Amino acid sequence: MLPLVLYDILSELPGNNWSPNPAKPRFILSYKNLPFVTLWVEYSDISIAMKAVGTKPNKRRDGSDVHTVPVLSDPNTGALIADSLEIAFYLEKTYPEKPIFSNNSEPLIRAFDSAYVSLIRPAIRPIFLRCTEILSPASAQFFIGARSMNIPLPWDAKRDEDWELLEKGYNTAHEWYQKSDGKWIMGDTFSYADIVVACWLLMYKRVLKEDEWARISSWNGGKWAQVLADVEKECKLA
């Protein structure tokens, strides 16, 4: 079997990885024991690089085209897939061993993905600010220009309020977990929903200051550091 190719975003961090969306297929590939290699792309070069690869653009809210990562190339089938959720569906259909959408759960997990991000989005500004600090200067400027179209600057104007919103969001997510009869969102069944939660937590751990990650780790009795550790172990990335 030929290795699959995952396109991810370059950073100045050791090991490079930081972005939650490319992390999701990385976790899936490792969980399913699929061979893969990573090609790293500067944030400022994503559009040029993905056009060269041949991916179709997504649409911004204003209708303009935008190329994004992750992108997955599978030389075994010739498939080229963009968007982390579509990549997850492709990998599940093509390589069904060790399922991540058990019991026909795809529609519910799609809804969960959207609901979880809606908890985070209102408090994303201080996270974006930290992201600019781990990118190259050119990519940081491009990131600011791209992200400020939807999340207006300045990103540090309401820091305390944003942190309160983030904690409130994770209080809600904690309530979801409490309704499960196991350590995973689907009880004793590991799923893509757990990967979604973990990949955002991984970004916090990677891009935030040490005391900021410690703050998140302390919420809900240490729940979120434990979730990240559990998912990394399950996916053999610990």
Mean pLDDT over the full residue set: 95
Terminal CA distance: 25 Å
Count of individual beta strands: 6
Q: Which radius of gyration do the C-alpha atoms yield?
A: 18 Å
Give the SSE string: EHEHEEEEHHHHHHHH
How many distinct helices? Answer: 10
Question: What does the model show?
Answer:
The protein has 238 residues and is of the alpha+beta class. It has 10 helices and 6 strands, in the order E-H-E-H-E-E-E-E-H-H-H-H-H-H-H-H. The chain has helices at 20-31, 46-53, 84-94, 106-120, 125-132, 137-147, 159-178, 192-207, 210-218, 223-234; strands spanning 4-9, 36-41, 58-59, 65-66, 71-74, 79-82. The strands form 2 sheets. A 4-stranded mixed sheet has the order 2-1-5-6. The chain has a two-stranded antiparallel ribbon with strand order 3-4. Helix 1 packs parallel to helix 3 (84-94), helix 4 (106-120) packs parallel to helix 8 and helix 8 (192-207) packs across helix 10. The longest helix is centred in the last third of the chain and has 20 residues, at 159-178. The chain is globular, with a radius of gyration of 18 Å. The mean pLDDT is 95.
